[in-house]
Amino acid sequence: MTNTLHINIAPHITQALKENTPVVALESTIITHGMPYPKNVETAREVEKIIQDNGAVPATIAIIDGVIEIGISEAGIEDLAKRQNVLKLSRADLAFAISEQKTGATTVAATMICARLGGIDVFATGGIGGVHRGAELSFDVSADLQELAITDTIVVCAGAKALLDISKTLEVLETGGVPVMAFQTDEFPAFWSRSSGLPCPLRADSAKTIADTFIARRKLNLDGGLLVANPVPAEFELARETIEPAIIQALQDAENEGIRAKDVTPYILDKIFQITNGASLETNIALIKNNAALAAQIAIELVKTR
Ligand code: PSU
Ligand code: MN
């Protein structure tokens, strides 16, 4: 182990950052643990294309054989998706994965850390991790929430997954001092559905408002990121009444099978996929694409301020 950090930024990303071209980071856990093959690879490719079409450069992030890779190639994504035993890496696991030359996908928390190291300000995902239902007993609170409180990256998501306790998730974000901005709505969205029934603390009607808020926050010298909650387009949403029975069933199955810790979210996403006959995946794909487009627009507004 040397003293240098094992980080490899793809040359075209380095060049884009140097030339003040907008760049959008993308996570990899959604590929390896969030969607089945081959839809995961197909989606990753389409998401990158949407970012390009919107005028920004996509940079998918993962740890490959102990190296932080920023801007993985299409072949690299395909390879990652096909590999066996890819780890799910959050803040707690990054150092070990690097020192032991492991291969792992980065969660929202880990992607924020790596994007920051690479100098990328904007990051698009599907839904952030949050406070799980029953957390008062399980203490299951995603590390994504505390990361948002300490690492300054804009994270564009479709809200928190409805399988979580969204009300508690918003409380933890507030405690962490994280600005939570709903895009063109007053409500905090619930991933598969546009509505959670809960108001969002802040509202942004343009990408510029989001970029300006992020810049103002930096000027204030405040630590932490900014969470953008972008509701899934109406034509792709699953109504709360439709998804809720699937969630309840999936949570019950997880309980019966003793699923714990890191395995909970991937397990439940897969169960919901099965129970809804794949409908949940179609919505998941639509919302991540929608987030990618908005993230690109925010990245464009950000570079204008430099
Ligand atoms: N959003 C998706 N699918 C996913 C995830 C998010 O649409 O698979 C992943 C993200 O990487 C997020 C992680 O950080 O789930 C949260 O895991 P946990 O609940 O174990 O913190
Ligand atoms: Mn957890």
Account of the protein in words:
The chain contains 13 helices and eleven strands. Strands 1, 2, 3, 4, 5, 6, 7, 8, 9, 10 and 11 form an eleven-stranded mixed β-sheet that branches. The chain has a single domain, classed as Indigoidine synthase domain (Indigoidine synthase fold, 3-Layer(aba) Sandwich), CATH 3.40.1790. By secondary structure, it is an alpha/beta fold. The longest helix is centred in the C-terminal third of the chain and has 26 residues. Helix 3 packs parallel to helix 13. A hairpin with a 2-residue loop joins strand 3 and strand 4. The chain is globular and about 50 Å long.
Describe what is shown at a glance:
This protein is an alpha/beta fold and 306 residues long.
- The tally of domains stands at 1
Helix content: 40-55%
Number of strands: 11
The total count of helices amounts to: 13
Q: Strand share of the residues?
A: 5-15%
Largest sheet: 11 strands, mixed
Shape-level CATH architecture? 3-Layer(aba) Sandwich
Q: Using the coordinates shown, work out and report the CATH topology.
A: Indigoidine synthase fold
CATH domain class name: Alpha Beta
Would you tell me the overall average pLDDT? 97
Stretches with pLDDT under 50, minimum 5 residues: none
Integer-rounded radius of gyration: 18 Å
Q: Compute the separation of the termini in Å.
A: 37 Å
User: Could you name the CATH homologous superfamily?
Assistant: Indigoidine synthase domain
Q: Secondary-structure element order, as H and E?
A: EHEHHEEHEHEHEHHEHEEHEHHH
Shape assignment: globular
Q: What structural class do the secondary elements suggest?
A: alpha/beta
The hetero compounds bound to this protein are: pseudouridine-5'-monophosphate, manganese (II) ion
